[in-house]
Design brief:
The chain is α+β, with helices and mostly antiparallel strands. It has 13 helices and ten strands. It is flat.
């Protein structure tokens, strides 16, 4: 297979999921290495601070031709003018989340190039919307975005599910009860330490499973109650976010690694999509109900949420193609907004949290002495110091030379 065979059709998918294919000229991509150089008095050499890289920018000249080229071009111009994050299906570089950036110029050569026009623009890779830091209560904005997602997801489930026959209802109930059972088994450890939350968790589960025969007649209510159940464990407030996010990630993996759906399994896909998206929303809810201790914890949580959103969306696109379905985009857009706001919220609060530092011990050290040296005479930091460094029993007595120790300031 040559490079020509590996070229893919080029298209832009707007924020409301309208896809427009186009022809193109030579393509390129560019990104900026974010670095800063510092020269200090009385010190030889230069310190270069590495701040990572920007997203790629994809400048493109796009062509439309044929008898209705002007109509095609007008549709494309309208779509790239819509506010929000779209997708660029690049012929070489794959599918990228982008926002059209800067000037959009169009040229129609009516005399020597009739029936065609070119449009030049730059697509800028993006992680999504940045949270507006001027808001008085950033965590409340995340909660509001989740409420909007919950409503959109329930409505989309009602629109997409097809339960118009007894056989379809029977197959649906079997899969649904299996999936909600797996969710209960995997998430109940998250609520067992909170008696009130455990009672609520169990009551919601029973209300759904014991009334499933009635709820299949009302898919909107079934979806709404299911989303509440999925998100319920995320409301337990605790400082250990690592295990909580891992539970949701593992549940997502169970769905996205299962065999692909085939025609006739549209209801199965619709159900799994609601659950997978619900797991992502639960990750978002978990971070709002968590007390972060360090900057790295908050940024790591943001990265994991963004990653799992992409995992679910990539899986969804494959299933839509297999089943020849079209996503109306309502629930996707609402979840994308919630993910973006949550990531921005985590980045914002990270600036107020402790930053990680590390040292390599040049001699064996007493645990208490070293902790006091790094944190001051505060016994309250002992457990945090032990956990953040995963110290063994012998290391609590004496930390050996050469051991890397992390601390937070």
């Amino acid at each position: 297979m040559s490079w020509i065979d590996r070229l893919q059709p080029a298209a832009y998918i707007s924020p409301d999921n309208v896809r427009t294919e186009f022809e193109y000229e030579n393509v390129s991509k560019v990104r900026t290495r974010r670095t800063a150089a510092f020269d200090f008095a009385d010190t030889d050499g230069t310190f270069v601070q590495d701040n990572g890289t920007s997203g790629y920018r994809y400048p493109m000249t796009i062509w439309f031709h044929g008898e209705d080229y002007d109509l095609q071009a007008e549709i494309f111009e309208n779509e790239i003018g819509k506010k929000g994050v779209g997708k660029l299906e690049h012929p070489i570089y794959g599918t990228i989340n982008v926002v059209p950036f800067g000037d959009v110029s169009r040229r129609d050569d009516l005399l020597d190039g009739a029936n065609q026009c070119s449009i030049s623009t730059t697509f800028f890779e993006t992680t999504g919307n940045i949270y507006p830091t001027a808001q008085a209560d950033p965590s409340n904005a995340v909660v509001i975005s989740l409420d909007e997602y919950n409503s959109e997801q329930a409505q989309q489930f009602e629109e997409d599910i097809d339960l118009d026959s007894v056989s379809k209802q029977a197959i649906f109930k079997s899969l649904f009860l299996t999936t909600i059972g797996v969710t209960r088994t995997d998430t109940i450890p998250l609520v067992e330490g909170d008696a009130d939350q455990l009672v609520q968790f169990s009551n919601i589960y029973d209300s759904i499973t014991l009334s499933i025969d009635t709820l299949v007649e009302d898919p909107l209510t079934l979806a709404a109650q299911t989303i509440v159940f999925i998100q319920n464990p995320s409301f337990v407030i605790e400082t250990d976010i690592e295990n909580r996010l891992t539970v949701w990630e593992d549940l997502i993996q169970k769905i996205v690694t299962a065999p692909a759906f085939q025609p006739g399994q549209e209801n199965d896909f619709t159900t799994d999509l609601m659950y997978a998206s619900g797991y992502v929303s639960s990750m978002i809810s978990s971070v709002v109900n968590n007390e972060f201790a360090t900057r790295s914890d908050a940024l790591n949580a943001a990265d994991r949420i963004l990653t799992q959103f992409d995992v679910v969306n990539d899986w969804k696109d494959i299933q839509l193609s297999n089943l020849a379905l079209i996503d109306t985009g309502g629930a996707y857009a609402a979840l994308q907004s919630a993910v973006s706001i949550a990531a921005g919220f985590l980045v914002e609060i990270s600036f107020t949290l402790k930053q990680e530092r590390s040292i390599v011990l040049n001699r064996a050290r007493n645990f208490g002495e070293l902790c006091a040296e790094l944190y001051g005479e505060l016994d309250s930091q002992y457990d945090f110091f032990i956990n953040s460094n995963d110290l063994s029993g012998s290391e609590i007595i004496e930390i050996p030379k050469g051991r890397t120790i992390v601390y937070y300031v």
